[in-house]
Write a structure and sequence with these properties.
The protein has 6 helices and 15 strands. The chain is of the alpha+beta class. The longest helix has 12 residues. The mean pLDDT is 91.
Length: 301
């Protein structure tokens, strides 16, 4: 189940229009069917598609499972940073999809988790996304926390909705910066030209990214980025918007990137959150992976 908190800027927006911007790859008619069937609730109650949102509303979206899809447990090695009976924290490698989807029903993080954890994964997000609370892109590496119990899932989802998790990324971007740090505050929503892409749009959701220059590398720059919000493709869209697309990002940057990067150079290095059961603050940090280090060594030459 996905949870969305309504902010002041979304006040009086129609429920279906709001969710159309928030949920990837879903049509307006499909949203209407979910609302009619009671899969979408506001403050725990069913509403109609034209419901006007109020600040502070909590929207729950229970996506139905696709039919006739069996997700197999696969013995895929995991880089486990921490594990207890409620959560598991992993360092996801590059080129791994987080959860099964059309075209990717094997080799995903979920397939690996099902083998490692057996039935000990939260069932809130259904059979295709057991335990999955948040995601990073296939070509992005880094730290993810997965819920093994439903109570952990709800607690972690609430922290994501409140934007209280600490999330630091490293990225290599095109072009140099005149200043050492800054903030991008620009609304992100579905692109009007391509629904598979996100874009900075006036009617989008509030999105804030803070960046700091760590190293200047000629025509490129190594950045640390801190997410204040967590919109789809937020870092990639914001950096492209200010003229600094990520190296290797063929969706929001140059179509033929140099160095045969095979995807954006982006790593989720730090993740901090309150343990949803114990109440203890936990923080996990990973080293830059080999592909990232090799690019830096190449640029430093």
């Amino acid at each position: 189940m996905d949870i969305y908190n309504v902010e002041v800027r979304d006040k009086n927006k129609r429920l279906d229009l709001f969710l159309n911007d928030e949920i990837e790859d879903i049509s307006r008619s499909a949203l209407h069917r979910l609302i009619e069937k009671g899969n979408i609730k506001v403050n725990g109650k069913g509403v109609n598609k034209s419901y006007k949102l109020r600040e502070g509303d909590i929207i729950e979206v229970d996506m139905p499972l696709p039919e006739a899809v069996e997700i197999a447990a696969e013995n895929i090695p995991l880089d486990i940073l921490y594990e207890d009976k409620d959560i598991i924290v992993v360092n996801k490698p590059r080129d791994m999809v987080v959860h099964p989807a059309p075209g990717h029903y094997t080799g995903t993080l979920v397939n690996a988790l099902m083998y490692h954890c057996g039935g000990e994964l939260s069932g809130i997000n259904g059979e295709l996304r057991p335990g999955i609370v948040h995601r990073i892109d296939k070509d992005t590496s880094g730290v993810l926390v997965i819920a093994k119990s439903d109570i952990a899932h709800r607690g972690l989802s609430a922290q994501l909705a409140e934007h209280s998790m600490k999330r630091l990324y490293n990225a290599v971007v095109y072009n140099g910066f005149d200043t050492d740090e800054g903030t991008v505050s620009a609304n992100i929503g579905r692109s009007t030209n391509d629904r598979k892409k996100m874009a900075v749009v006036k009617e989008g959701r509030n999105a804030v990214t803070h960046y700091k220059v760590l190293e200047r590398l000629g025509k490129f720059t190594l950045l640390e980025l801190r997410l204040e919000t967590g919109r789809t493709h937020q870092i990639r869209v914001h950096m492209s918007h200010i003229g600094h697309p990520l190296l290797g990002d063929e969706v929001y940057g140059p179509k033929k990137p140099p160095f045969n990067t095979e995807g954006q150079i982006l790593h989720a290095r730090v993740l901090g959150f309150i343990h949803p059961v114990t109440g203890k603050y936990m923080e996990f940090e990973t080293e830059l992976p080999e592909y990232f280090v090799k690019i830096l060594e190449l640029l430093r030459r």
